[in-house]
Amino acid sequence: MKRRIIGIMFVLFMxxxxxxxxxxxxxxxxxxxxxxxxxxxxxxxxxxxxxxxANITTINGKVIxxxxxxxxxxxxGKVKSVAVEDGDLVSAGDLLFTLDEKNIQSQVNQxxxxxxxAKANYDMxxxxxxxxxxxxxxNQALVESLLDNARENxxxxxxxxxxxxxxxxxxxxxxxxxxxxxxxxxGQLDQAEMASSDQILEVAKxxxxxxQIAYSQAQDALKDAxxxxxxxxxxxxxxxxxxxxxxxxxxAMNIVDMNRVYVNVDVVEGLINQLGKxxxxxxxxxxxxxxxxxxxxxxxxxxxNARTQLYPIRIYLDNSEGAIKPGMFANVELALDxxxxxxxxxxxxxxxxxxxxxxxxxxxxxxxxxxVELGLxxxxxxxxxxxxxxxxxxxxxxxxxxxxxxxxxxVGGSE
Length: 415
Fold this sequence. Notes:
four-stranded antiparallel beta sheet
C-alpha cells in the first residue's frame, strides 16, 4: 500500500514538471517572436496627388446695404400722415407718407406769383432792349452828324486863324469845345448801348428760368403729396411724424434694399494686382455662423483711398433670406499665389537632412528616401516640383525615425 502511494506521487511530480517545462518553452518562443515583429517601423502614408494650392490671407470688412435710398419730398411741407414704421418691409410704389395739400398749394401759389413777376420783367426787358437798339441807331447817326458839324467848324476856325482873324486863345477854346462835345456824345452812346445790351436780356431770362423751375417743382410737389417707395426694401431712420414738417434738405426716412449686401475690404498695394473681378473668396460672418460661404469679387478699385492709401475691394453677397444685416463684421479669405494642378504633400512629410529636403515613400514595405525640390509653401501643404510622382505612397507619420531602406509597416493613412 505504501509503495502504491509513493508511485502515484512520483507520477504526479513528473506530470507537473512536464507542464512547467512546456509553459516555459512557449513563453520563450512568444518573446522571441515579439522581438522579431518589432524590427519594422510603423508609419502612416498618404497617396501623392495633384491639387490646387494658394496662400490664404484673411481681411476684416463690414457689411453694407447694396441700396440705401434717402426719401425726401420735392418741397417742404406739413406731414399729414405716416403710413410706415421703422423695420417695415415695403415694395416699390407702397405709400410711405402724405403731405398736407393745402400747405403745398400755398407754396405753389407763391411760386406762380414769382414766375409771373419774372415773366413780366423779362417781357419788359425785351421791349426795353429792342427800343434801346432802335434808339441807339438813331443816336449814333445824330452824334455822327453833330460831330461832323463841330469838326467842320473847327477846320474853318483854324483856316481863319492862319489868315490872322481869331486869336490863339479863341482857337484853343474851339478845340476844347470839340473834345468836350465828343466826350459827352460818346458817353450818351455808351449808356444807350448798355441799355440795349443782350447781357441785360440774359439776366432777365435766367431769372425767368429759375422762377419756371421753382413753379414746376411746386406743381410736382402738389402731385407728389403722397410719397411712395422707389424700391423694395426695409424702412429705416424715420425722422418725421404727423403734424410736423418734412424738409427737402433732410431725409424723412431711408429705404434699404437688403436682398443684396456687400462687404467692403481694403487691401495693401502688395495684394491689389493678385485680385480681380469675379475671383472667388470665402466669407465668414461670425454674428451668423462660423461656416464660411463662397462669394465673388464684384469690383476692384485701381486707385487707393486718399485718406488710407488702401485699395477698396467690393464683394457682393446674396441675402435673400435677410439674415445678414448692414453693419455686421465679416472675415474675407483671399486666395493668393494660386497654383493649379501641382503635386503637393503635407508639410510635416518633409525632413531637412544633411542640407537637403527629403521625403520617404513606401516601396515593397521599405522606406525609400527621395530628395525633393520645393515650391509654394502654404503652411499646411508644400508644392513638390521634382522628386516624387503621382500615386507614390509618401510617409506622413513616423518619417523622423526612418533610414533609407528600413523596414516599415503601414498602420494608417490612405494607401
